[in-house]
């Protein structure tokens, strides 16, 4: 009996060891597969993806308990991306539809040369015209006399379309030097030439931007349409268009050409502030904002865009009237919350008009994202903070999730939401909260405050902690919750700093005392 017991105990232990060895072997295979996934950039989540086309037979053969294990400990880290998604604004297949560097010929512009240099250029071929331009012949020719408009237009268009980045920059240098010299002729009865709104639209349209992206809002359109723009431009080219418009001139984003055009417009709006009417300035600002959403521009510093925006905002004559209209217009340029946040952050905040536009635009977008009825934009800081307090109460992630669930449930045939869809909606709710909080920060932290506004920030701190911070339950697997809570902490810290700096006077202390409940 004793031997039987010992024998049975040994047998059971051996069976357990064999089972453990088999489990260990399967786990080793799983570990190798996971390491291969990580090496290929797919991470630990790939084995549990449903319907993933990249899944292999080995992944399909995973035991169910392993799938449950991975599902239990997988981490969601990409629910809130660091960068806005952007849009596809440029269509390179349409670039060069009106003109290109091979069809732009100064001899077709109707220009009649007077000086020896002008006659030399007009006798030269297209390639030699560019060579003479970049070697300083034009700069010396117009050192003491005004440069004719056809020459300036030719330079502007060639700069925008030439595929050699160095040549485009050389033309920009020539164009800017001539323009500055033209501006020094104080006895001239006319202003130096600057490109009209149609000239600007034509070069961007020729780069591959659809007309509907140049002027995206139906209620804010120029006095010309796409057909007028193309025909008018071709008339100034002697009736000639691109010799082969089926071949695009650009295969990638013409970053240098875009920035060169923007730099030149920055010079024009600086030396000739009266050059554009308020309505044209609004259209130019909207054009720049829409272009900035291009996906391939996301990693490029748009300092030149911001410099031009500063000049354009400064040149608006009726700012108090146009600023609210501009806020409402920018708000309609995209439907994605992160894109709208990007547009807010593109506005320069180191000028008074820039800060004002940034704050009011943030309030308008917050109202839109919360499905609030539009109301007049408050101008004073106290009113803005009071409106912000009302909006902040509605930014509780769980409440935003409930709204999304109700909306999605109404769209479902059976009116039910499964767990995977509920998790996806939760990610969207926290993503939206993240954007809204950034906009809150733009409204509240973009200018200096007086001691009289201290009580508003005390109330904001309380609302932020009660309605947002306390509603977030952190989870090691759900990193997006931690990301939102971290942003809450940063905003709260900034407000506490403002409260400390806005110390009240002795007579104001009673306004800030709140009795214990």
Automatic annotation (TrEMBL):
Cited InterPro entries: CANIN_dom, FAM178
Any GO CC annotation of this UniProt entry: nucleus
A Pfam family it matches: CANIN
Every Coiled-coil SMC6 And NSE5 INteracting (CANIN) domain range: 4-374
Record's protein name: SMC5-SMC6 complex localization factor 2
Record family assignment: Belongs to the FAM178 family.
A GO BP annotation: DNA damage response
């Amino acid at each position: 009996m004793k031997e039987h017991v010992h024998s049975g105990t040994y047998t059971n232990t051996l069976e357990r060891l064999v089972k453990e060895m088999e489990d260990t072997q399967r786990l080793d295979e799983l570990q190798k597969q996971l390491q291969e996934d990580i090496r290929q950039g797919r991470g630990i989540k790939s084995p549990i993806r449903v319907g993933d086309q990249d899944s292999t037979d080995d992944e399909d053969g995973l035991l169910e308990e392993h799938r449950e294990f991975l599902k239990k400990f997988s981490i969601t880290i990409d629910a809130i991306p660091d960068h806005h998604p952007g849009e596809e604004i440029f269509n390179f297949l349409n670039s060069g539809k009106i003109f290109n560097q091979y069809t732009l010929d100064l001899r077709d512009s109707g220009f009649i040369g007077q000086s020896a240099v002008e006659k030399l250029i007009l006798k030269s071929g297209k390639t030699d015209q560019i060579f003479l331009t970049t070697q300083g012949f034009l700069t010396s020719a117009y050192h003491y006399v005004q440069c004719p408009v056809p020459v300036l237009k030719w330079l502007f268009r060639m700069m925008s379309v030439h595929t050699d980045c160095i040549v485009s920059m050389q033309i920009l240098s020539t164009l800017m030097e001539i323009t500055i010299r033209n501006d020094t002729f104080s006895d001239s009865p006319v202003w130096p030439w600057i490109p009209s709104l149609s000239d600007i639209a034509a070069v961007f349209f020729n780069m591959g931007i659809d007309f509907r992206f140049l002027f995206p809002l139906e209620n804010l359109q120029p006095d010309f349409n796409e057909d007028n723009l193309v025909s008018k431009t071709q008339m100034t080219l002697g009736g000639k268009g691109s010799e082969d418009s089926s071949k695009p001139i650009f295969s990638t984003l013409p970053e240098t050409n875009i920035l060169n055009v923007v730099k030149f417009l920055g010079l024009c709006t600086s030396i000739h502030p009266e050059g554009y009417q308020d309505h044209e300035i609004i259209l130019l600002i909207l054009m720049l904002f829409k272009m900035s959403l291009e996906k391939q521009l996301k990693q490029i510093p748009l300092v030149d865009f911001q410099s031009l925006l500063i000049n354009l905002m400064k040149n608006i004559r009726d700012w108090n009237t146009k600023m609210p209209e501009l806020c409402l217009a920018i708000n309609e340029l995209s439907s994605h919350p992160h894109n709208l946040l990007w547009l807010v952050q593109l506005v320069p905040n180191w000028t008074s008009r820039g800060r004002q536009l940034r704050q009011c635009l943030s309030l308008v977008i917050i109202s839109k994202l919360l499905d609030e009825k539009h109301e007049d934009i408050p101008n004073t800081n106290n009113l803005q903070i009071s409106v912000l307090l009302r909006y902040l109460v509605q930014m509780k992630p769980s409440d935003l999730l409930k709204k999304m669930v109700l909306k999605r449930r109404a769209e479902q045939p059976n009116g039910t939401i499964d767990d995977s869809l509920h998790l996806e909606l939760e990610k969207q709710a926290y993503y939206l909260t993240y954007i809204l909080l950034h906009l809150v920060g733009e409204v509240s932290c973009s200018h200096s405050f007086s001691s009289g506004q201290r009580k508003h920030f005390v109330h904001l701190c309380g609302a932020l902690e009660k309605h947002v911070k306390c509603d977030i339950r952190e989870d090691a697997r759900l990193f997006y919750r931690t990301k939102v809570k971290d942003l809450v902490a940063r905003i709260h810290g900034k407000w506490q700093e403002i409260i400390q700096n806005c110390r009240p006077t002795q007579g104001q202390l009673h306004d800030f005392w709140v009795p214990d409940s």
